[in-house]
Amino acid sequence: MQVYATFEHSTYIELAIKHLEENGIQDIFAVPLDNRTEERKLFDTIHRSDGTSFIGTGMILAVFTSTIGANRGFVLEWGPIYWGVIGALIGFILGVIIDLIRYKIRKSPTKLLKGKNSEVILIIECQSDQGKLVEDILWTNLALGVAKVV
Question: What confidence score (pLDDT) does residue 150 get?
Answer without folding.
Answer: 86
